[in-house]
Amino acid sequence: MSDIPKAVRGPATTSARLAAFIDIVGVWLSPVLLGLSGAFLLAPDANWDLANYHYYNAWAFLNHRLGYDIFPAGVQSYFNPVLDMPFYWGNSHLPGRVVSFCLALVQGTCISAVYLLARRLLFPRVLARDALGALAIAFVGITGVVSLSEIGTVFYDYVGAVGLTFCFLLLASPANKTPLDRMSWRVFLAGFVLGSAFALKEANAYLVVGVTLALPLLGRPRWGTAAATAAFLAGEVCGALVFGGYWAWVLWQRFSNPVFPYFNTFFRSPFAPAANIFEMPFGPHGWVDWLFFPFVFFWDPFRVSHIALRDPRVLLLFLAVPLGILLLGVTRPSAESADHRARRRFLRFCLGALGLSYVFWMALFSVQRYTMALEIMAPLVCALVAAELPWRRLRVPVGALILAVMLTTFSVVNWGRGDWHVFNGRIVDAAMPDLGQTGGDLVVLRTRPSAFVAPFFAAGTRFIQIAAVYAPNWEVRLFNVSPACLIRDYPGRIFIVTDEHMIRAFDTKPLALGSLGLTMAPSECRVIQSTARPDGPLQLCPAHRVAAPAKC
């Protein structure tokens, strides 16, 4: 420092100090700011999935309801409840705003990971402008339309984004060595993080497949790559077992299918039909869709979502992958720059991993919510591709233009939000009308979503979902009785949870419950006061037996 002229030393020191402050913002303060946004700028989560199974599943697991209730949340009743238990505990013991803060804070850690990746790969200098460049990339990554729609929610698509970004951060090695030259704890831990994200939310399977297949692109020596790939796979298996092994074992013990009721054509569980019940409402319809699907759903977002989530990030990523492969093929790294060689090696891996992940996402799900991980990584990957342009003067303008294009669709949409001013600010709560319920009642859920009200009934109440389309209409032999027979032989009182639409329809179709041997009087129904009501208020109605069920 003493050899630097004072006229230069001052600005350089100021820039370094400002860069250090920006580093604190990018790594530590950004997740906190996103958490505060979820707690104070947005209303509480009240989405359809929360009302259907996220709250019920955790309560059911902790209260040993498996085998007692019958499809209260449809087939989602058997999803891994581990991810939902922290929210359930928080909703029961903490103020709602604190819970929303924590949910958004977890999502905000993606900002930290992307910022660190950008600093390591693109902006390594201790300069304010480098730090600002990395912060801009992280900011654009977190402001995708899917990401903004899920701040403070329990959709948990950000679990896959957190897993992917931290997996990449662990695999992004220093310039003087490749991460796969030898087996290391970083490679194992990267696999563990990604495997854990898959176990907690199975929809992240497409990321696991894409990253694992692309992993050899990071290394050079054949045997070192093979050993480290084995370590990565071992980490994935360990992560999957830690966070999903117990639940898979429970389902295997109860239903002879560790992913019950899915893939039952393979596992042949006697408690579900040997058929593929996996619902795929979205997806490509022909070869043109398969080749240009990002263009298709950017033009018509309802092809991949129930609400309009128009965003260019996946489209730009779709264009960046082949362009990046081309640039890596026709250009050469700077001979004197180890950083450049490391960056190109990691870009090669990113393009392969995200490109393959996109293909498997399209084939398995084609649900836009699940692309949050791709959306968050898209700005960084596009900036890395722009940095490989052979025309130096165009690199920064092109990168900045791409980031600007990604912000053109900035919007905050939601999947259903509640009100902080009801139920003392709790996210999930309900108050049952007094119709003489006891702990020995059977509650028939005739509408979805409605399973979230189950914890607010008297202990011992049993629940069964009988709603057209959503609840499977096949016998569950685990209970040794069909749903109709359970209703026929149940010794206690029977209640029905329904909604206003069904009650109005009952006036014109009074035999809607006839196949169950039940009827109800709409005048006896009372509103269930609750927080999560995405399709309107629920109603609790006493049921009356009029005949034996039609099929028993």
How are the secondary structure elements laid out?
Elements: H1 6-41, H2 48-62, E1 72-75, H3 85-93, H4 96-121, H5 128-142, H6 145-149, H7 157-171, H8 185-200, H9 205-214, H10 222-255, H11 264-267, H12 287-299, H13 313-330, H14 338-364, H15 372-386, H16 392-406, E2 430-431, E3 442-445, E4 462-465, H17 483-489, E5 494-499, H18 500-506, E6 518-520, E7 526-530, E8 538-545
Oligomer: single chain
Helix count equals: 18
Shape: elongated
Overall pLDDT level: 89
Helix content: 40-55%
In whole angstroms, the N-to-C terminal distance is 88 Å
Number of strands: 8
Strand coverage percent? 5-15%
Largest sheet report: 7 strands, mixed
Detailed description of the structure:
The protein has 552 residues and is an alpha/beta fold. The protein has two domains: 14-43 and 94-275 and 282-406, no CATH class; 423-545, no CATH class. Helix content is 52%, strand content 7%. The protein contains 18 helices and eight strands. Strands 2, 3, 4, 5, 6, 7 and 8 form a seven-stranded mixed β-sheet that branches. A hairpin with a 7-residue loop joins strand 7 (526-530) and strand 8. Helix 5 packs antiparallel against helix 15 (372-386) and helix 7 runs parallel beside helix 15 (372-386). The radius of gyration is 26 Å and the shape is elongated. The N and C termini lie far apart (88 Å).
Question: What tags apply to this protein structure?
Answer:
552 residues, alpha/beta, seven-stranded mixed sheet, 8 strands
Quick structural gist:
This protein has 552 residues and is α/β, with parallel strands linked by helices. Helices cover 52% and strands 7% of the residues.
